[in-house]
Write a structure and sequence with these properties.
The structure is a homotetramer. Chain A is of the alpha/beta class. Chain A contains 5 helices and 8 strands; from the N terminus they run βαβαββαβαβββα. Chain A has one domain: Rossmann fold, CATH 3.40.50.360. Helices cover 37% and strands 21% of the residues of chain A.
């Protein structure tokens, strides 16, 4: 019975809506249990109990929200030396403004959360081009929700941006179910 | 008399148009001479003669065009140990498709060209939010031209995307003029 | 019978040795067939036939060797729109000099190859801290071989740097065997 | 009279020592005033008053310390729309453990702080290969202090790692003095 944990920080509910859409997607995978928590309420036990973890964040100045970073520094990092998350499955998503039309820092933001997953020995799930909704709400690293238009005016998330989040949640859960319960990675003999 | 060199690779003339716009911008700075070359025709002498260098590339699978990479590996890298470009001024720009609405890899593409500049000890110029045209053709790392819409259909560059290139060229040339001719960075005594 | 393909470019045989070590590791996974090819001889058929792909490169000025980039631009990118590599498993490794003691660009180099995998919808395998040999030849993104010391003098790869490559090959093959033959990622209905 | 501000977070005084070394370097530039502050005590007024800003951070799980990130989210970002730091000069440095021998995430850490500078329209200063001490304490993005050896054991910073910090501080101050007081970047007419 694979467990999926979705962790997020949010300013104006955009990332929260993406987290909820991802949770709905994950829940479509048979026998999966899903929980959704803010970065501030997530504990080490939550992380070690999960088979798959998604982290979502607003983009601030080209990097993740400080509350997500605090979770990484104070909770995730304590699990690193122990290898407690080795072989679990991870995915990321982000929301952000749209000034400039070029992504405004979402790419390095998502890569830096994947960096945390890589340090922890976690399998990383991308967002394939074939994903429904991709044209409007996606990068290769994960769903990207734009709550603002290219001039920076608030326009709200489009349905497509929630559709990619839904499928990303399902994709992570599906691979987590397949990989759960086996030790995939070499350890000292 | 500061010299600006603009180097590019292009597939369907989008990056080339941005290079030409950047050249026009650079030429507005008094006493500046500007040359525009493809990655394939650029030589070590071209690079060492310049006070400021802009490099533009199409984005392919989230990184720079292989012709730009070949120039870096075979020409730029030979100047690295010599410190031949220390203290010169650099800027980057990119063009790409728009599938997904999130930038499609332009950010890591531009950062990896800046990485080359950093290795060479070059001062790096960003693209400020106040730049005319920013809302339609820009990221913080440099101008971003989108020749395709978010569904991947070719639509051509907008005027705004050439306007940001124009100003990026001028910005680089202005700082290059200010910094030219002085040794700014510490060397072994 | 999972197939693992290991692709590399090499200047002075360091990356080649890492590729061979990764091949030996992959071959320890039951029923796996392994092939090793240079970037220049790799074809689209090689890629689509594989269940798992490792790519190794020297680091040049903070990014991948231009021959690897050419493979990505001219072969991988043709498979992107088709989704031909969706759900396959990928890993990366790099070799480089050691001047500075800080990695000298290996991180962005490996991330940019992972970017190609992400665009193609491939599952990405990290290098866990528990991997034998990690202390001497590793980053979180993949094995890192240092053929030069921190002053830039050639010293050759250490055994540990080949040990991490061996295990990375085995790790990728093991996950590729587990995921092979099933469609994991959502597609348009 | 150029003003240099050096901002840092520290866990076990390594980043703090680098900050102090950078301050000493900056102070060698004639007529320069230098202040050193923790991320938590830095205010918007401190940032707007400075001509050059250096930010230093420990590396945690491949990205910056959450206290630096909080400063960026809550103080720097408020200056972004106003363009209040346009044309100022920035540099970065980091400290970290050494497990793996490959930099352990310092590269993306420093790039993400530069990303903040790029968003703010700031000129970015690299660390040239010719910098005294480079072989032991440097990356192209900035000084890198290793308080631990490649097996993760605490060994303290080397002198070289403080020497690169000293020169990076001086380099940033020297360019900040040259560029101070002029508007370099295009704005809407």
């Amino acid at each position: 019975m694979p467990k999926i944990l979705i962790v997020y920080a949010t300013d104006h509910h955009s990332t929260e809506k993406m987290a909820q859409a991802a949770a709905k997607g994950a829940a479509t995978v048979p026998d999966t249990t899903v929980s959704v928590k803010t970065a501030e309420e997530t504990t080490a036990d939550d992380l070690t109990a999960a088979d798959g973890i998604l982290i979502g964040t607003p983009v601030h100045m080209g990097s993740m929200d400080w509350r997500v970073k605090k979770l990484i520094d104070t909770v995730f990092s304590g699990l690193w030396m122990k290898g407690a998350l080795n072989g679990k499955v991870g995915g990321v998503f982000a929301s952000g403004g749209g000034i400039g039309g070029g992504g405004a820092g979402n790419e390095l933001t998502m890569v830096s959360i994947l960096n945390n997953f890589a340090e922890l020995g976690m399998v990383m799930i991308p967002l394939p081009l074939c994903t429904p909704g991709y044209a409007d709400g996606a990068t290769q690293w994960g769903p990207y929700g734009r709550a603002h238009n290219h001039e920076g005016k608030p326009v709200g998330l489009t349905d497509a941006q929630l559709v990619t989040s839904f499928h990303h949640g399902a994709n992570v859960a599906r691979v987590a179910a397949a990989l759960s319960g086996t030790k995939w990675f070499a350890t000292p003999s």
